[in-house]
């Protein structure tokens, strides 16, 4: 299934099939590591969000596709993943940060890859709380952020196309230990189809490690491992268990 077509609307494809495959494989490997940490041999796996299956295709290869469940707010993306990879899909509906149609306490392993990276602190906190209700106690999730490594990159270049004042705001917030969130510039090209679909609530966040630790503390979660830049030498990776 790794060789399945890349959907023409997939914002995660930036022109290099090698890079697309590498990022997808890396996340599937991180999910496999989460399964080891959870001591789950044939886990039920949740991927939220799935987009158009950059990661899903590798999850369907590494795990039994019947045990892989995916969710996204973009209906055509969920439908594509279900039809192409044989996984179970959930179309996320209002209230969109609560995932009410995804079963609670069902998954040994879950991936929250590249979602809170695009949300305000308030929405990201709601997502974290409801996403972790989907894990069984003892389950382990992979959560990614724009964190320490993104701070380094953004310090040198406007890699997220947010413009200079927004970039300064993100850096200042992060350096003060605060969650930073801004919108893209009107003429940005990154994630353009996704922003068109979702609207202005979807922008760019920069997230200090302490924010993740605080949310975990509030929600009875424990960070097992932290890997700065651990996904594609870009997003920070947390392995987090539900106690
Ligand atoms: C950057 S993409 C990441 C997709 C996938 N995790 C990957 O790495 O290829 C972010 C995805 O989040 C989805 N999304 C945004 N808000 C969402 C919400 N409230 N619930 C579910 N999915 C959402 C978008 O539709 C988009 O597919």
Can you characterise this structure?
The chain has 243 residues and is of the alpha/beta class. It has two domains: 17-146 and 208-242, Vaccinia Virus protein VP39 (Rossmann fold), CATH 3.40.50; 149-198, no CATH class. 37% of the residues lie in helices and 22% in strands. The strands form two sheets. Strands 3-2-1-4-5-9-8 form a seven-stranded mixed β-sheet, with helices on both faces. A two-stranded antiparallel ribbon has the order 6-7. Strand 1 (45-47), helix 2 and strand 2 (68-72) form a beta-alpha-beta unit. Helix 1 (17-37) crosses helix 2 (56-62). The longest helix has 21 residues, at 17-37. The model has no long low-confidence stretch (mean pLDDT 96). S-adenosylmethionine is lined by residues 12, 49-51, 54-55, 71-74, 77, 92, 96-97, 113-115, 194, 198, 202. The site of S-adenosylmethionine has 20 residues, from strand 2 and helix 7.
Short description:
The chain has 243 residues and is an alpha/beta fold. 37% of the residues lie in helices and 22% in strands. Bound molecules: S-adenosylmethionine.
Low-confidence stretches: none
* Main sheet attributes: strand count, strand direction, barrel closure: 7 strands, mixed
Q: Report how far apart the termini are.
A: 34 Å
Strand order across the largest sheet: 3-2-1-4-5-9-8
CATH architecture term of the largest domain: 3-Layer(aba) Sandwich
What is the CA-atom radius of gyration, in angstroms? 17 Å
Oligomer: single chain
Number of strands: 9
CATH class descriptor name of the largest domain: Alpha Beta
Keywords: Methyltransferase, Transferase
Protein name: Class I SAM-dependent methyltransferase
Organism: Paraburkholderia rhynchosiae
């Amino acid at each position: 299934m790794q060789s399945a077509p890349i959907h023409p609307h997939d914002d995660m494809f930036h022109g290099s099939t090698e890079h697309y495959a590498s990022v997808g494989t890396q996340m599937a490997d991180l999910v496999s590591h989460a399964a080891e940490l959870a001591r789950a041999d044939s886990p039920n796996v949740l991927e939220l969000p799935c987009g158009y299956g950059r990661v899903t295709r590798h999850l369907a290869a590494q795990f039994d596709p019947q045990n892989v469940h995916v969710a996204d707010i973009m209906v055509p993306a969920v439908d594509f993943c279900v039809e192409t990879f044989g996984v179970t899909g959930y179309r996320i509906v209002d209230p969109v940060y609560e995932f009410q149609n995804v079963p609670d306490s069902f998954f040994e392993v879950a991936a929250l890859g590249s979602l809170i990276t695009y949300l305000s602190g308030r929405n990201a906190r709601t997502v974290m709380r409801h996403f972790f209700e989907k894990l069984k106690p003892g389950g382990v999730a992979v959560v990614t952020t724009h964190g320490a490594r993104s701070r380094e990159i953004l310090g040198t270049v406007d890699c997220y196309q947010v413009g200079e004042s927004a970039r300064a705001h993100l850096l200042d917030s992060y350096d003060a230990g605060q969650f930073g969130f801004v919108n893209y510039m009107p003429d940005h090209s990154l994630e353009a189809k996704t922003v068109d679909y979702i609207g202005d609530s979807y922008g760019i966040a920069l997230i200090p490690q302490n924010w993740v630790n605080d949310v975990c503390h509030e929600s009875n979660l424990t960070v097992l491992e932290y890997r700065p830049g651990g996904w594609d030498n870009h997003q920070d990776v947390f392995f987090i268990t539900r106690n």
